Amino acid sequence: MSLLFTTSPKHCANKGLNLKRLFNKKLLYFLSTFFLSILSIILLIWFILHPSKPQFYLKNADIYQLSLASPHLLNSTIEITLQSKNPNTRVGIYYDKVRIFAAYKGQQITGDSEVPSFYQGHEDTNYLTTSLNGNGMPVYPLFGYEVGRDQTSGKLIVELKLDGQLRWKVGMWVSGRYRFDVDCTAAIGVKQGAVPGPLSLMEGAQCSTTV
After folding, report:
1. How do residues 113-155 score in pLDDT, each as one tens digit?
2. Most buried residue, 27, 121, 125, 158, by most Cβ within 10 Å?
3. Can you give the pLDDT at residue 30?
4. 198 assigned to some structural domain
5. Which among 31, 33, 45, 124 is positioned nearest to 83, based on CA atoms?
6. Predicted pLDDT of residue 110
7. Would residue 3 count as lying in a domain?
8. Residues 32-65, buried b or exposed e (16+ Cβ, 10 A)?
9. How confident is the prediction for the chain on average, in pLDDT?
10. Per-residue confidence (pLDDT) for residue 48, from 0 to 100
């Protein structure tokens, strides 16, 4: 006498549900492993290359105007040239939303000058030349006195600041955006009794960069 085994519809439904759950688990495991592998490769490349932050050097700065329209309002015109260098041999740099302005004793004395976005290849050097202008910039009451005192000493110390966003490029991979800040200190020489003309940078200056 033989036994006849039959499967109920409920048993078939449970078996199909279990197979579906098993398939979903395998798919989830495969996708997790795949993305973790890709992330590990990217991080490995990142740590091997370890990109160095860009270097900036102030080549030139000329003050054409620095005069008070009133005790509290300043007009200014400053032309500068910055040298930007990518020190990395395998990493390129994209620069976005870059702006430059000048300050004196912590007080902003020009408006912002926008620099168009640009790409800097491996160990490339770029020169950024721009004119910084301020028309009716508000200043503190003792601003004129301090400028006059520094002119008498023969030197004005002007701060040039640059900030923006950068992205690292390794092969075809491009990172997210990172904020960077650049600070340059310009020692502007003042010659007493000299022929009227722009006040110029006494010597080039290395800038500090923070990423």
Report:
1. 999 999 999 999 999 999 999 999 999 989 999 998 998 888 9
2. 158
3. 77
4. yes
5. 124
6. 97
7. no
8. eeeeeeeeeeeeeeeeeeebebbbbbbeebbbee
9. 86
10. 61
Residue 85 identity (one-letter amino acid)? K
49 — pLDDT class (breaks 50, 70, 90): low
CA separation for the pair 182, 115 (Å, rounded): 14
Tallying the residues shown for the chain, one arrives at 211
Token pair 């003792």 is found at 142
Report how far apart, in Å, the C-alpha atoms of 164 and of each of 113, 115, 131, 178 are: 12, 9, 18, 8
Instruction: Say what the pLDDT of residue 3 is.
Output: 47
44/60 same-domain check = no
Domain that holds residue 86: 55-210
Token pair of 3, please?
């036994």
One domain, residues 42 and 59: no
Q: Do residues 144 and 71 lie in contact, with contact meaning Cβ atoms separated by under 8 Å?
A: yes
Q: What does pTM read for this prediction? A: 0.76
Token duo for residue 197: 């003309």
Nearest Cα neighbor of 209 from 54, 46, 37 is: 54
State how far Cα 30 lies from the chain centre.
Answer: 38
Distance CA 151, CA 81 (A): 23
165: its two tokens: 């966003």
Nearest-CA neighbor of 136 among 67, 62, 64?
Answer: 67
